[in-house]
């Protein structure tokens, strides 16, 4: 899987994310603009090489590669639920069958900014981590574990046993600003068209909604996630329900 | 300009937005599924006709037209600044050179839900109201005036003379949750890559930021808008700074 761009490589370097290979532009390197980042890559022991811009363009499928194309291998490095073991004040996000890579990428970026510990996605019928998701997350995806699970309902039950309170974002819920977002929490956001599946919803401890004017029924899911996650972040920053 | 779909037509009917012509599927009509909405359209005096699905598909450029294609004419019906005259407790949004129709559409939808009175966009170097914007707004755009102006800096000065307090969303600003969002306010959101232009920023009364974890520098602009607009909405709903 090829991804590209300077900012994304910077995030990879910062998080030491293991990649298969990094291709730099031979022409740009000659001009020295990539000198520093090539040195960082070399010092960290990453595998790298130089190719003409035409070659990079074929891999990136765009001319906007900024002289950098990264092969992250066949698959993104997903984690499993063990990674949250022993952590306190858990702040988790579950995405139930999100389809649009732009939504997934934007929610990843927002989640990292809000201090979310991990994002959980189902194995089937959901968008995976694709180059578009990585791009839209502006490389922030390398800073957060993406956990892939077989059955979301089972996962929710496991979380509940770990004293995590699971909230589902749903039009029938309690206003999001009336909730105490401190402690161990998990927020579930549903599919763009249909929301959270009924069987998944039934496993949630509580439903939360965003009250709206003008008979608007719903917002874009990445906007809804931003509104609720940043309300939670605010409370968790100040250690009090506002 | 052709737009399509049942929900969008419903919003047009609800807001009595003037359109040029409405094309219904002749096949679907025979099956009766569009009967009710055709009656509404006829009762309101809209111009309409029936065409085979193949014709609708060519106009909508998709097969997902749901039997309804609407010709809204050559241009969207923009308003000018006079429309806010005499209104109290103004809640306005300015978009400074937003480029992506998905962002524009999502911000429109969010603004309507947050109770914003009007959205102001510049005449040049910004995405206009396109079929994609209308679609992504899920038809909510017909519920809010879109004001097109020649010069945003002049507009901001005009607003200030009307006692509107103008806030620019910027990484250097004061945290958005420390602001009193009551009264006459206008929020300025900048371009996806570069934020608010310097000369526009200089005209703002105050800058506001969204504090973030993990060295994230910015969020998708439609997510940022959602977070700040709904903080403002909350205060304005409860008539107090929270």
UniProtKB/TrEMBL annotation, chains A, B:
GO terms, molecular function: RNA binding; RNA methyltransferase activity
Domain named RNA 2-O ribose methyltransferase substrate binding: residues: 2-78
Sorted UniProt keywords: Methyltransferase, Transferase
CDD domains xref list: SpoU-like_RlmB
Keyword Thylakoid: no
BP GO annotations: methylation; RNA processing
Stored SMART domains: SpoU_sub_bind (SM00967)
SUPFAM superfamilies associated with the record: alpha/beta knot, L30e-like
One term under GO cellular component: cytosol
Family under the similarity heading: Belongs to the class IV-like SAM-binding methyltransferase superfamily. RNA methyltransferase TrmH family.
Name this protein carries in UniProt: RNA methyltransferase
Gene source species: Petrotoga mexicana DSM 14811
């Amino acid at each position: 899987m090829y991804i590209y761009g300077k900012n994304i490589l910077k995030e990879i370097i910062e998080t030491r994310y293991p990649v298969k290979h990094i291709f730099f532009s031979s022409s740009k390197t000659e001009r020295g603009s990539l000198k520093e980042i090539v040195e960082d890559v070399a010092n960290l022991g990453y595998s790298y090489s130089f190719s003409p811009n035409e070659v990079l363009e074929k891999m990136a499928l765009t001319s906007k590669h900024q002289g950098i194309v990264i092969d992250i291998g066949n698959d993104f490095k997903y984690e499993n639920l063990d990674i949250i073991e022993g952590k306190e004040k858990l702040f988790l996000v579950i995405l139930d069958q999100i389809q649009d890579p732009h939504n997934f990428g934007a929610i990843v970026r927002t989640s990292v900014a809000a201090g979310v510990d991990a994002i959980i996605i189902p194995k089937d019928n959901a968008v995976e981590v694709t180059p578009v998701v990585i791009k839209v997350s502006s490389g922030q995806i390398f800073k957060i574990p993406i956990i892939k699970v077989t059955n979301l309902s089972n996962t929710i039950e496991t979380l509940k046993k770990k004293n995590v309170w699971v909230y589902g974002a749903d039009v029938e819920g309690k206003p999001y600003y009336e909730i105490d977002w401190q402690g161990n929490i998990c927020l579930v956001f549903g599919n763009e068209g249909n929301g959270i599946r009924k069987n998944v919803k039934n496993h949630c401890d509580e439903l939360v909604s965003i009250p709206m004017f003008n008979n608007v029924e719903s917002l874009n899911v990445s906007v809804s996630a931003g509104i609720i996650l940043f309300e939670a972040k605010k409370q968790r920053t100040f250690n009090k329900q506002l």
